[in-house]
Amino acid sequence: MTKLENTRQHDLGEKVAVVTGGTRGIGRAIAEELSSRGARVAVIGRDAATAAAVASDLPGDAIGVAVDLSHPDGPAAMVDEVARELGQIQLLVNNAGIGMGKPSLEVERGEWQTLLDVNLTAVFFCSTAVAAAMPPEGGAIVNISSVAGLAGIPERAAYCATKAAVVGLTRELAVEWAPAIRVNCLAPGYVRTDLADAMIKAGRVDPSAVESRSPAGRYADPAEMARVAAFLLSDDASFINGQTVVADGGWLPTAPPERPPRSAHGRVEHSLNAFGVDRDLHPGAFELQLEKRLYVLLSETARHGFGQLLHRQVREAHRNAQLPAE
Predict the structure, then answer these.
(1) What string of DSSP letters covers 129-170?
(2) Distance between CA atoms of residues 155 and 87, nearest Å
(3) Could you give the residue numbers annotated as active site?
(4) What is the model's pLDDT at position 315?
(5) Residue 227: domain span
(6) DSSP 3-state helix, strand, coil percentages of the chain (rounded to 5)?
(7) Which of 123, 90, 57 is nearest to 43 (CA)?
(8) Closest to 8 (Cα-Cα) out of 33, 32, 27
(9) pLDDT digit string, tens, across residues 293-311
């Protein structure tokens, strides 16, 4: 073991650390890393048996705590149990989160609210509950965001929005609570977790596309994210506050593969085809078919509240259809 490795092994010596969503993936890797560096770790999860099992596998003193952080009483209950079992909390990692891949026009209000509750509201109230219970000398918090909070990813509207909000929340809390409490953010790229493997298996993510865009040419290992989080919590990062560290192997600054240019006429053809309208009809028949199709679409979708949107789209397609072919 090198001198640096020996120093790092206990650089969080006996500090009490809470890791939400600590039973799997990045959260579990962070719990393992903090424990290996001497922290006393509380692994937070929804299932008591799973949280306890993960805690028992850690090299240092650790406990498992089962709590629903999206419930209004969850964060305070978490802090009370950790303080009772381990002492005052000095370190917090807000890792718990959920995702959803769905076209934006199909997202229901309840689904949107669920992501807000878990990915943003729980982060805020866990942070305030822990900050209020920290010792006078303060501590450090790391919020886990995502590259999805810094880039647009199709069919991830709620996830992108909540992860972007975590970045903004991090900056505000860092300014408000300085200098006693440092608050930073970690935005991982694509990480090879069990969840990522399940998404690949289900065909929701193309791993070759991810790997080909990233200069690193691969997914990250959860342990790589854990080391960044541990650094931000440690005294080595004592002058880092309010920052978002992107750990994505260069994925974000790399431009996506170029798509062939699409003419205005091509966009109109695509829109009309999507609505089942034949552009090649003579003007009178074209307008009649468009009007009939519009009536059917509005009738079919009115119950979903999309009528006005579709009405605007079809009217726009109707106007643009007069563009000359290229």
Answers:
(1) HHHHHS-TT-EEEEEE--GGGTS--TT-HHHHHHHHHHHHHH
(2) 42
(3) 159
(4) 54
(5) 3-247
(6) 50, 10, 35
(7) 57
(8) 33
(9) 666 666 665 555 555 555 5
